[in-house]
Amino acid sequence: MATLWLLLALVHSALAVPWWEVSTEENAKSLALYFDREARRYFVYTEGTIASSEKALSMYFNVARGPTVKNICEVGFNAGHSTAIYLNANPEAKVFSFDIGQFPYTRGNSKLMKSLFPDRFEYISGPSAETVKAFGEARPDVKCDVISVDGDHSTEGTLADLENFRKLASCRNWVLMDDAGWNSTNSAWQMAKDAGILTQVECFADMNPRPDYQFMEYPENRSWCLGFFNVHDLDSECPAWFDTNPNTDRTFVRPIEI
């Protein structure tokens, strides 16, 4: 009997799933904060983290775990916060992350992410205005079901990312854009709406993010938009979801307060 229990214990140990692959919001947050700590080893870390807002983290987590989501594409790996959330949220999905790679912690954390998710994470280094186009030409088999835009925050750069990612989007896609309350990114989002590139669902600002950990500085407000790319003109099999453009002539970021 003792031998049987030992064999069962060994089998259980061999089949045990690492905690960071067990999909829960708490595990996603823990993984994001792990990468935040790792980034701070380099002593040049100045960027924020989506984990500072429970509301933003929850939306990104739940959008990524949609049952039809197989490929998640993002511009702006930075320290890997959002990538960690996506990979934990959806154990079936792959993440393709585009980043200019200008910071040592970005390059270091991308290698660390690859070691944890060797078959589900791909890092593409270089300016997104070039790499997204090149990726689309080289990998026409990859269609992005969730697209996250958090790279160049200029109006021109953000609009270029939106335009280029639309060509990679699947029929049933979602697009998330971080820092939507900035004037530059807000303008780009509105220009994309006006051009019919995307349809806005909602934009938010968390006016009172409350991190429950001490090693981070108190964050600024997190703001983000959710929408979807209109792609029926790119693929005849994709539906047109509306007859009249439902977008408003101005992008409002709705404040959320506790």
The parts where pLDDT drops under 50 for at least 5 residues are: 8-14
Class derived from helix and strand content: alpha/beta
What Rg is obtained from the alpha carbons, in whole angstroms?
19 Å
Mean pLDDT: 90
In quaternary terms, these chains amount to single chain
Strand order, largest beta sheet? 3-2-1-4-5-7-6-8
Major beta-sheet overview: 8 strands, mixed
- Overall morphology: globular
User: How much β-strand is present in the residues?
Assistant: 15-25%
- How do the helices and strands follow one another from N- to C-terminus? HHHEHEHEHEHEHEEE
N-end to C-end Cα span: 56 Å
Strand tally is 8
What's the total helix number?
8
Helix content: 25-40%
Pfam family, one: Methyltransf_24
Keywords: Methyltransferase, Signal, Transferase
InterPro entries: SAM-dependent_MTases_sf
GO molecular function, one term: methyltransferase activity
Task: Report on this structure.
The protein is an alpha/beta fold and 258 residues long. Helix content is 38%, strand content 20%. It contains eight helices and eight strands. It has helices at 2-15, 25-39, 54-64, 81-89, 104-116, 128-138, 155-166, 183-194, and strands at residues 71-75, 94-99, 121-125, 144-149, 169-178, 198-206, 222-229, 254-256. Strands 3-2-1-4-5-7-6-8 form an eight-stranded mixed sheet, with helices on both faces. Helix 4 (81-89) links the parallel strand 1 and strand 2 (94-99). 41% of the residues are buried.
